[in-house]
Amino acid sequence: MQATLSNHWPYPKWIAHRGAGKLAPENTLAAFKLGASHGYTMFECDVKLSRDGVPFLLHDSTLERTTSGTGTAGDVDWEGLSKLDAGSWHSATHSGEPIPSFAIIAQYCLQHDFFLNIEIKPTPGLEQLTGEVVAKQAAALWQDTSTPPLLSSFRPESLMGAKLTAPHLPRALLLDTLWNGWLETALMLDCVAIICNHKLWDASSVTQAKSAGFQTLSYTVNDDATAKRLLDLGIDGIITDKVDVFSPIKIP
User: What is the largest CA-CA distance in the chain?
Assistant: First the structure.
């Protein structure tokens, strides 16, 4: 376990999913700005690599759902990706909103003292390389700050790449199921946190994670009953789409 965060968790409890959840086109600067307007100071986003190795924000492996492009995103150079419309799919208001590079989002967060949870979302086959490149750029961008971004991934290979490249950056293992060996894998990767599908957290799993020294975070929480259950369990972080419903200022 990394000593730097094991005794002090600097991040806020409430985290805006992909910038502003579903209120703006996900993983865009517009979404981050909208999330911030609702009082959020920590954001989650997905980062992958262009064909020429530029980290940028996109959730899916393919471009069709959230951009004007087609095909595998990782097969396109950054110059081509930067020209795509990543807003019209959401609403006419956001027509022409570009895909942001990771550097642009990092600069926005640093300028406003916002916290960031970077999900390393590799194109299949580029798991470790994506972790290495994202961690290297994050380390450079946040080198003069006291609170680095939290790097997370469903892919242990990506987290291993991040660990080998920038071991001082905090890491979290993302889980959609409690597969055999999840706790041991998080320990092997020197993670500081486990981020689970909210359905996986119960008294037993929370106890296992906390007893091993991990912070516990949950995605994607969009209703009061689920939020209350998790808070009662002592969850340390909640990722939500409902930035207009859950106020990070008023809710502990």
Answer: 49
193: β partners: 172, 215
CB 56 within 8 A of CB 45: no
Distances (CA, A) of 161 to 128, 137, 153, 157: 5, 13, 11, 6
Q: Are strands 115-120 and 150-153 parallel, antiparallel or unpaired?
A: parallel
Distance CA 66, CA 47 (A): 14
* φ, ψ of residue 232 in degrees (nearest 5): -65, -30
Q: Are the C-beta atoms of residues 50 and 189 closer than 8 Å to each other?
A: no
pLDDT tens for the chain, residues 1 to 252: 454 565 689 999 999 999 999 999 999 999 999 999 999 999 999 999 999 999 999 999 999 999 999 999 999 999 999 999 999 999 999 999 999 999 999 999 999 999 999 999 999 999 999 999 999 999 999 999 999 999 999 999 999 999 999 999 999 999 999 999 999 999 999 999 999 999 999 999 999 999 999 999 999 999 999 999 999 999 999 999 999 999 987 554
Task: List the one residue out of 20, 143, 153, 160 whose CA is nearest residue 90.
Answer: 20
Map residue 131 onto helix, strand or coil.
helix
Catalytic annotation, residues: 17, 59
Q: Give the residue among 44, 53, 6 at the shortest CA–CA distance from 238.
A: 44
H or E element: which one contains 56? strand 55-57
Q: CB under 8 Å to 128, separation ≥6 — which residues?
A: 157, 158, 160, 161
CA neighbor of 171 nearest in space, from 191, 155, 154, 185: 191
